[in-house]
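Kindly review this protein for my students:
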Amino acid sequence: MNLHNLKLFESLKYRNFKLYFLGQCVSMVGSWIQQIAMGWLVYRLTGSVALLGIIVFLSQFPTFIITPFVSTLIDKISKKSILIFTQTFFMLHALVLTILVLTSILNSSNVWIVLVLSLLFGIVNALDGPTRQAFYTSLVPKEILTNAIALNSAVINGSRLIGPAIGGVVIGLFGEGICFLIDTISFLFVIIALLKIKLPKVETLTMKIHLINDIKEGLNYIFQRLPIMVLLIITFSVSFFIFPITSFLPAYVKDTLGGGSEMLGSLMSFLGIGSFSGAL
């Protein structure tokens, strides 16, 4: 089958996008493996549902605070350099967790280490998220940008389907530490892909940065367009009221269903089926 003849894979004709796409395919699966391992580990060590919520809060809340500020900066500096930094940080983050778990340093008395790591993860993720979204404009022509975004969405939701299932089995067989090790290795793929991507040099240093004005312009643009406001409200509502369900699944599976990590992985994967179908 020739990818050049399929509109669905049109973006893969471009070398830079293909490299990044393949790197993301591996890395995103690793990230979901780590996410299921993190929840299972924390609940196994502490038995605290509240702590599960706090960890998710620490990893997500910085995005709400920091993103409006970094979003005004990423168009004025190298997106590729930012992503190499963020992905390297995520790899080191996973490596630290690997070492802490495999050496049995991490236990119920020092679980605060996980809280600190989650907060640091959230801060860097606030920079990584908008940069990744903007990076696609550098990889493909404007006319097929929609296709590139759709393929990226398929990767995210496809990994959500595959990663938790793998993570549940790996936890059952080898423990959470191996999940973190797999995630550490998976980041190498996207980092190598980023290093191989060749982009034309763009002058950015001469561009002036007006942080407050840029934020005001962005907010005015949103408030003057009702469809965008409605979309943001819906997105916020889903994230606030529905997404937290996945955070408490480890407790529900273990205490209510009497299941193990394999059941948790299966349930998480089933939640990803609808998202993956919608992306296609």
Observations:
- The mean pLDDT is 85.
- The two ends are 18 Å apart (CA to CA).
